[in-house]
Amino acid sequence: MRIAAFGVREAERPYFAHWAKATGDQLALHSELLTPTTVSLAAGAQAITCFQTVPYAPGVFAGMAALNLHYLALRNTGTDNVDFAAAKRHGVHVSNVPAYSPAAIAEFAIADMLYLLRHTGAVQADLHRGDYPAAALHLGRELNACTVGVVGTGRIGRALIRLLNGFGATVLTTDTHRQPIAGLRYTAVPLPELLAQSDIVTLHIPGTPENTHLIDTNALARMRRGALLINTGRPNLVDTRALIAALQSGHIGGAGIDTYENETADLLALDRRGHFNDPQWQALLAQPNVVLSPHIAYYTATAVQNMVETALTCLHDFVQTNESALEVAGQ
Ligand code: COI
To answer: Which of 85, 43, 87, 35 lies closest to 61 in space, CA to CA?
Structure first.
C-alpha cells in the first residue's frame, strides 16, 4: 500500500520503518503538516496519516478529493481540529487513535502533582540563584494526605485513579451516574462538591463545546484556598485569564498546565525565531508555582509506537473495506 505520512517526528521514524519492513507498504514520510498546500505531496498515495494540533482546513479535504484520496488516519486522539463537514463534503473518512497510552498521561499528571506539592520549581529557582538555605525551606505536602478530584473517568481518568489509589490519596470523581468501577476506590459527587472538597483538581474530559471553560472564575472560586489545578486534558477546559487572576490572588496554590488554552493560535503565530509569544503564557511562566509543558503528557515511546501502528492499521482497513472500527463520525 502507498501511504503518505505528514507531521512525522523523528521519534516516529523507527516505527514507520519497522512497519514498512513488516508489510511492504511504501511510506512517504513528510515532516510538513497537512495543509491545503502540502497535501499535493500525497500525489500517488492511496491514503494519508497525519499528526498535528493545528486545524485540518477545508482546503485539505478538497485537495485530498482532487488527488482521489479518501482516507485520513490521525495519529492522535483529539479531533477538535478537524472540519468534519468539509471532510464529509469531499468524501474523506477520518479515523483517530482513541487510546494510545492512558498511563502516559496519568503518570504525567502525577508528576505535575508531586512537582507542585514539593515546590520543585521554587527549589530549583533558589538553587540556580545560589541560595541553598532558601531552597531547603519549601515545606511540602504529601499526596497520600490529599483529596484529589478527578474530572472524567474515561481510560485516562481510570488509569489515574488507579495510581492515586496506590499513593493512598482520597479520590473524588463527578461521574455520579455511572456504575462503580470495579477495583478502584473513589467517591462520585457533583462537580461543585468535588471542587469544594479537593486539594487537587485534575481534568480528563473531552474538549467539547459544553466543556469549554468548565474551570472558569466561578469554578476557581469554589475551589479550596491553596488548591492545585492540573490540566493534561484539553486546552479549552480552563479559562486561562481566570486562572492567572486566581493564582495571582493566592486563592489557587499552583497549576500544572500541559494543554495550554492558546497553544494552537500561538503555534500558528510563532515569531521568526520560532518563539511562542503570548502575554498569558508569559504570565503563567512567571509564576514559580506553575509548571508548564508543551502538550507532551502523551509523549512516550509506548504511546508513539501505538499511534503509528494504530493509524496505519486503520488505513489498511479503510483501503481494504472502506471502513475502520476507529472511524470518527464528527458532529
Ligand atoms: C491527542 O492525542 O489528541 C493529544 O492531545 C496529543 C496531541 C499533542 C495531539
So the answer is: 87
